[in-house]
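User: Just a sanity check before I run the rest of the batch. Below are the structure tokens for the first item. I only need the designed sequence back.
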């Protein structure tokens, strides 16, 4: 079974990020932590992402305990996001127009 860093890295790669010599997974995780701090989020909040792609950002927020949701125009990316979130009750994802 993959650890959360491997899953997150794969989702970001699917979304088009260069993780081989480009941006590091650790820097993306730090960006997530900085965003959480900047938004002053508390555990009782919901997060919704428009244009969520494969759900990489939502994956980390769900892992942090937030109830998350997202939508995207790409049915392929939505299918990937749904596959990676299928065991989480706090993760909802939909295709635009559905």
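Assistant: Here's the designed sequence for the first item:
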């Amino acid at each position: 079974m993959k650890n959360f860093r491997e899953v997150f890295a794969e989702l970001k790669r699917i979304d088009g990020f260069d993780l081989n010599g480009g941006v590091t997974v650790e820097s993306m995780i730090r960006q997530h932590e900085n965003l959480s701090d900047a938004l002053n989020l508390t555990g009782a909040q919901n997060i919704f992402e428009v244009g969520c792609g494969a759900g990489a950002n939502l994956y980390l927020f769900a892992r942090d305990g937030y109830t998350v949701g997202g939508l995207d125009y790409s049915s392929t990316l939505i299918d990937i996001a749904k596959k990676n979130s299928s065991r989480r009750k706090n993760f909802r994802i939909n295709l635009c127009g559905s």
